[in-house]
Design goal:
The complex is a heterodimer. Chain A is an all-alpha fold. Helices cover about 80% and strands about 0% of the residues of chain A. The chains are: A mainly alpha, B alpha/beta.
């Protein structure tokens, strides 16, 4: 198979897998309540708390952006991470492996589908909170903010692909790691407060978390009216993180597929 | 090249467990080749190796002339697997959508994928439930969908792992008919079939390999396998319930299987003997043990008897 044909196949597989995710999730409307209405209550509580304390207006926008991004993290951690594991249990993984489809196409499709679903919800949350609480966003910065948003998703879902590979290798035991990562990452990403309150050294460490960078970048563009030049470092870092995570995910997947074929772990269930 | 599958001293170990040991088979194009063996005998491991989902520990395996270790990407285009115990697919999608999704794994364009799916749905008479979610269809319908999924890439080698497992008589017959029709359509096609149902193997397979504890204990046409017992006789004896721990020692018995039915308080013995006189010894033995004989019949030799004779127990 030529390189071009391989790329076409990866894209076709990714499209098909994204179709499953988007069609499947949107067919069940209870997700709208779970993914939009319930997070909206949580974000509203924080915004109301800020309002009641007379906090600066900026913080309301900070909370709205951070709150809208939480869903992506959980989606990456749980839906992305564990999906291949459930695919294995159902027998889908074996069918993926025996087909000419590269597994990276499957993961890419899961990422695109998940990111699309979550984006619809995040945008809805942002619009609704801005209308209810009269939060003003700098609409002139919509393009840089959108760029940061897309790059954040690229880095975040590449990280998700790495989680998925780990699930493939270590099975359900990885869920403990996910549980350990869940809340701390949200805390250090400063979903409801600016990460600038952390000491510089902590901020430096945090800068390898795509979620933290993305939230910070969008806040600086949409709330603090920073110029593109001022947020360029975030864009560059997100690009680097995205590429590194994506390459690592490809390597991990290839390695784990080979290891799985040798040890038999790709086809053994309840592992 | 007349063969589609060739294995040479194929071995597979899982730690200290031997799943396959020195398996040598050659399957010709146009053949339905059966793999018979109890659970854990190595049938599924062999299918997994041949379908490139698992690597062998030792030895070689070739599918359509390609090495499963090196050329797995070339093999994958031409094969597919259907397992009777799998629930492959996504419950939130319809039969049609699931089939389209799986078609995309083989490089078809979106439109080509839908075209193939629609053709197969029509061919297999699945229109009635094509738009139903797969988690809302019966086991029989699901298995038919699963079988059709295996044909999406028009494979040259189709691995059927217990395709009629748990199905009712009518659906099983329907699936068996599809299998027979499908193989007849193209002489280049090959089917590797594992089944627990001896009658199914007898009906469908051109040749059968009996696999036990990872080793091939017999490999031949069904006709020739039946000839193994050409000089033997098979008897079925119905008795009062025999104690589970009861050992039956009568010289001359080549193979024996005891099936207890505690609900009806009866046991059924299937006995392979080389001389009919052994049966009278057996009847005396049973009588001395206080076991009542209800019925005795001489039976035709089946593949099941050959299996019992070779392996020492029923499948």
């Amino acid at each position: 198979m030529s390189k071009l044909n391989e790329i076409v196949l990866v894209l076709r597989v990714a499209y098909a897998r994204a179709y499953v995710r988007i069609k499947g999730v949107n067919r069940d409307l209870t997700h709208c309540v779970i993914d939009v209405f319930l997070p909206l209550l949580g974000i509203s509580a924080i915004i109301l708390a800020y309002k009641s304390m007379g906090a600066p207006e900026n913080l309301l926008g900070f909370a709205a952006i951070g709150g809208a991004m939480i869903a992506f993290w959980y989606n990456v951690l749980w839906s992305m991470g564990s999906q291949l594991y459930w695919d294995k249990e159902q027998g889908n993984l074996q069918l993926y492996i025996i087909s000419p489809a590269p597994l990276i196409g499957i993961l890419l499709g899961m990422a695109i589908g998940g990111a699309f679903n979550m984006s619809l919800r995040a945008i809805t949350i942002l619009i609704v909170t801005s209308l209810i609480f009269n939060i003003k966003f700098n609409l002139n910065a919509i393009l840089p903010a959108f760029l940061i948003f897309i790059l954040t998703l690229f880095a975040l879902y590449s990280l998700g692909m790495m989680f998925a590979s780990s699930f493939l290798r270590f099975g359900r035991s990885v869920s403990k790691v996910n549980e350990l990562l869940g809340e701390p990452i949200l805390f250090f990403s400063g979903v409801y407060f600016p990460i600038k309150i952390f000491p510089v050294i902590v901020q430096l460490i945090i800068s390898i978390i795509p979620l933290a960078l993305g939230i910070e970048g969008m806040r600086e563009a949409l709330i603090l009216n920073k110029s593109l030049f001022e947020i360029l470092w975030i864009i560059v870092l997100l690009i680097i993180l995205g590429i590194v995570f994506f390459m690592l995910a490809i390597k991990m997947l290839a390695y784990l597929e080979k290891l799985g074929k040798t040890k038999g772990t790709l086809t053994l269930k309840w592992d | 090249m007349s063969e589609s599958i060739l294995t040479v001293n194929l071995c597979r170990y899982f730690g200290h467990v031997i799943a396959l040991e020195d398996v040598n088979i050659k399957v010709n194009k146009g053949e339905i080749f059966g793999l018979l063996g109890p659970n854990g005998s190595g049938k599924t491991t062999l299918i997994r190796i041949l379908s490139t989902a698992l690597l062998p520990s030792k030895g070689d395996a070739y599918v359509l002339g390609y090495d499963v270790k090196k050329d797995f990407l070339k093999i994958r285009k031409y094969i597919n697997v259907v397992s009777g115990d799998e629930k492959a697919g996504y419950g939130v999608l319809t039969v049609k959508e699931n089939l389209w999704f799986f078609s995309q794994l083989y490089g078809y364009s979106r439109a080509e994928g839908w075209k193939i799916v629609n053709e197969l749905i029509e061919k297999f008479g699945m229109q009635e439930y094509a738009d139903r979610k797969i988690n809302r269809i019966s086991h029989g319908m699901f298995q038919k969908y699963n079988f059709v999924r295996g044909l999406l890439n028009n494979p040259l080698v189709l691995f059927l792992d217990e395709p009629t497992l748990g199905l009712d008589v009518n659906i099983s017959r329907e699936i068996r008919n599809y299998i027979k029709e499908w193989i007849k359509e193209d002489k280049e096609r090959t089917i590797i079939l594992t089944t627990h149902y001896m009658a199914e193997a007898q009906e469908l397979c051109d040749r059968v390999a009996i696999i036990y504890k990872g080793k091939i204990v017999a490999l031949d046409t069904v006709e020739n396998l039946l000839k193994i017992l050409a000089k033997e006789s098979v008897y079925e004896i119905k008795t009062s319930l025999i104690n589970q721990n009861e050992k039956i020692y009568v010289s001359g018995i080549k193979a024996i299987d005891i099936e207890n039915d505690p609900a009806r308080m009866v046991s059924k013995l299937r006995v392979v003997v080389s001389e009919d006189s052994v049966i009278s010894d057996l009847l005396s033995f049973l009588k001395n043990k206080g076991i009542k004989i209800i019925n005795l019949t001489k039976d035709e030799v089946t593949l099941e008897d050959v299996f019992l004779y070779l392996v020492g127990k029923k499948l």
